[in-house]
Design a protein that fits this description.
The protein has about 200 residues and is α/β, with parallel strands linked by helices. It contains 5 helices and 7 strands, in the order αβαβαβββββαα. It has one domain (about 5-200): Aspartate Aminotransferase, domain 2. Helix content is about 30%, strand content about 15%. The chain has a 5-stranded mixed beta sheet, sandwiched between helices. A two-stranded parallel sheet has the order 2-3. α2 (about 30-40) packs across α4. The termini are far apart.
Length: about 200
């Protein structure tokens, strides 16, 4: 299995959004999770995430998964929002040169998103070492295209990588996505999650 298609997809998505680097993952929520884990791994104290009451339900679940606190916020967000300084959920964002420097921005390619791949996401960043570490974290601590048995694994990894097949689908649909106007999402496209029993 060759990962060349993933690298090509990452490079083209990074170029579209105006980010120096991009790391493809299996879904946007995992991209957000890896971004938070990376902050923690870098020695940054992440006591809680700040989650809009209206967003996708998988995001607040991350607080429990990462054993940190959850703080709800009333926010009329548009395109993206901060969960923690430097960590952005940009699941519905599709806009050229919209990367915010100095952040980890996760974009979704879920089937309802503008670049609809069924499943998938990407983390945009502007630091080479950060991108390399996120790549390893997404891929079981290893680097692609090198047999894991031949690597000295030093990074705790998660099975969150994008498959070459998904990347190839993304490459085949990318030009059309770039040349069409995306649907504009609003916060009212999501229910108030604080009203759900699971969060009470």
């Amino acid at each position: 299995m060759s990962f060349n298609s993933i690298t090509e997809f990452e490079n083209k998505i990074a170029q579209f959004f105006g980010a120096p680097y991009a790391v493809a993952v299996d879904c946007c929520t995992h991209g957000v999770e890896l971004s938070i884990r990376y902050k923690m791994k870098s020695g940054i104290h992440v006591p809680k995430i700040y989650v809009p009451k209206r967003t996708y339900i998988s995001i607040p679940f991350l607080a429990n998964k990462l054993n940190i606190d959850l703080e709800w916020k009333d926010e009329e967000w548009e395109d993206c929002y901060y969960l923690f300084p430097g960590v952005i959920d940009a699941a519905v964002l599709w806009k050229k040169d919209s990367y915010i420097p100095g952040t980890l921005m996760s974009v979704s390619f879920q089937y309802r998103k503008h670049l609809s791949l069924g499943r998938g996401g990407i983390i945009l960043c502007d630091d080479k070492e950060t991108a390399l570490e996120l790549k390893k974290m997404s891929y079981d601590g290893r680097l692609p295209d090198i047999a894991w048995r031949d690597q000295d694994i030093k990074t705790m990894g998660y099975h969150y990588y994008m498959t070459p097949e998904t990347a190839e689908l993304g490459l085949s649909k990318l030009e059309s996505a770039i040349n069409t106007t995306p649907v504009k999402w609003t916060v009212m496209d999501w229910p108030d999650l604080t009203e759900m029993s699971v969060f009470k």
